[in-house]
Structure formats: C-alpha cells, structure tokens
Design goal:
107 residues; mainly alpha; 6 helices
Length: 107
C-alpha cells in the first residue's frame, strides 16, 4: 500500500529549508520535525530518521485526534470547480470557500 511504498527518509537539507519557510502552513508542518540536526552526534545512540510514511501516519493520527475532540453539527459541501465537472480541482476556489466559511480557523 501507500505506506510500504513511501518508507524513504526526508533529506536533511530539504527539511531544514522547510523548517525556515515563510509560509505558515509549511512552517507548522516541519516546526517540530526531529531530523538528524536535532539528535546527538553519537552514532551508537542515534535513532533512524523518521520516514515519510511515519510522518504521514503521525499527521493523520493528530488530525483524527482533533476531529474526535470536536463536536461537528453540520456537513459543509464545497464546489471543487466553477463548472462542477468531475476530475477538476480549483485550489483557489476551494481555499476561498474554506476561508469565507470559517473552516480554516476551526481546524
């Protein structure tokens, strides 16, 4: 499945760059990433770097905890594109809908 195919570790230079991102979303994703820079220099006590699949599972677990702690009272439908045709996704349209409905602040 997805997790078995994506067991590659994230490169340190990429994660360091993402940790310093000006984009709040990207910064928040990698703010607490424990790459090799955060570990001790001793080779015998160093742990393996987190894989992409591990980070995905952790992120999904965190999201599920947030959703479980909430008490939603409604379902919000979003239009994926102005033409309402399948297979097309307009990022800006969906983001605007989420922002104007107050959903970005909720999650």
């Amino acid at each position: 499945g997805f997790l078995e195919k994506n067991r590659d570790a994230l490169r340190e230079d990429i994660t360091a760059l993402l940790k310093e991102s000006n984009c709040d979303f990207v910064y928040d994703l990698f703010e607490h990433y424990g790459g090799a820079a955060a570990k001790t220099s001793s080779r015998s006590t160093s742990r393996k770097k987190p894989t992409v699949s591990y980070q995905f599972k952790e992120s999904l677990s965190h999201l599920m905890q947030n959703l479980s702690s909430a008490a939603p009272f409604f379902v919000r439908c979003l239009k994926p594109n102005p033409k309402k045709v399948p297979g097309e996704f307009d990022d800006n349209l969906v983001e605007d809908q989420l922002r104007y409905s107050g959903m970005l602040e909720t999650v």
